[in-house]
Amino acid sequence: MKNQLTFLKILGVFLCLYLFLVGIGGLSSGIKGLGGGFAKTVLSTTSNPFTALFIGILCTTLFQSSSTTTSLIVTMASTGALTIGGAVPMIMGANIGTTVTNTLVSIGYIGKGNEFRRAFAASTVHDFFNIMSVMILFPLELMFGFLEKLSLGLGTMLFGVLSTDQAFKSPIKKAVKWGSKKIEYISFDNDIVYIILSVLLTFLMLFSIVKLLRSLVLEKVEAFFDKFLFRNAISAMIFGIILTIMVQSSSITTSTIVPLAGAGVLTLRQIFPFTLGANIGTTVTALVASLTLNPIAMVASFSHLFFNIFGIALIYPIKILREIPIKLAESMADQSVNNKFIPLIYLAILFIGLPLIIIFMGG
């Protein structure tokens, strides 16, 4: 009976993955159907990189998933509605927004003193690292556009001349297109309805994939969530990458270890490299989504991968920089134990208030 249930869950994962790609394909087709006017509207709202950064934060906070946000960004890039230069700041923002989930999980321990201190520090160390990565790489990207150039360079090397008119040819692409046509049919050829239905399908299927994979994978690995897997920084980082690829959600993997931190099973320094691995693992969703679109979409997903790799490479090997997120997380956790309003104010300002203000001013 248990084996049958496992088999059904695996089938469910593949079905949801197919429907997720159908949603991505439908979104791409719907945006193209709206034409150049829509593209100009999108580009005008994201022409300011600073505004684009905070759009990424807010969208990911609302979706509770950087995978969803980056998949939508990649789709927009594939249609020409969003340039690679406009996509990069949004992707940076998505990396910050994704940390809200594990921070919310840690607040569940708010009345438990030392447990809360450990859990809150374990969640916010991810926040502070991603903010620090953005603070270093965002100005560099504005000055030199190195992530955009590197992604475009790799794309050109792999695919030749890049254009939104190009498309990957594969049986999967044809199957996805067939499914997207069915959504278009039930939307009565209305592009707005087509886009809405496609976004809803994409979000619902990604959520379902995460739930199914979580039940399949985490049940098997929870028994090994001990110091063996976190015996050194490299093994913890690799474990973070693999587990996040398997469950398709960095929010899930990082949230899972928050209770272990609260219980004192894992230390903050053991958890830190694991969260960095989760940052890399979460880029796979956008890469998979881009495979059903075109090389431009793939280039946008490359920028997500490069951003996370460079962030880790610039910060983690240097001890003085590596200590900053840890010290900030410990300091805020200590203050939050004494003042329970600090975590709530922190969440409200960083993930909602500040992005709304910046977007409003930029718009």
Explain the overall architecture.
The chain is mostly helical. It has one domain (2-362). It is built from 17 helices and no strands. The chain has helices at residues 2-34, 36-46, 49-63, 66-79, 84-97, 100-107, 114-144, 146-159, 171-186, 191-221, 233-247, 250-262, 268-281, 284-290, 295-315, 319-338, 341-362. α3 crosses α4 (66-79), α7 (114-144) crosses α13 and α7 (114-144) crosses α15 (295-315). The protein is globular and about 55 Å long. The N and C termini lie far apart (56 Å).
| Largest sheet composition | none
Query: What is the residue-averaged pLDDT?
Result: 82
Determine the strand fraction and express it as a percent band: under 5%
By DSSP (H or I, 4+ residues per run), the number of helices equals 17
Q: Overall 3D geometry?
A: globular
Structural class by sheet pairing and helices: mainly alpha
Low-confidence stretches: none
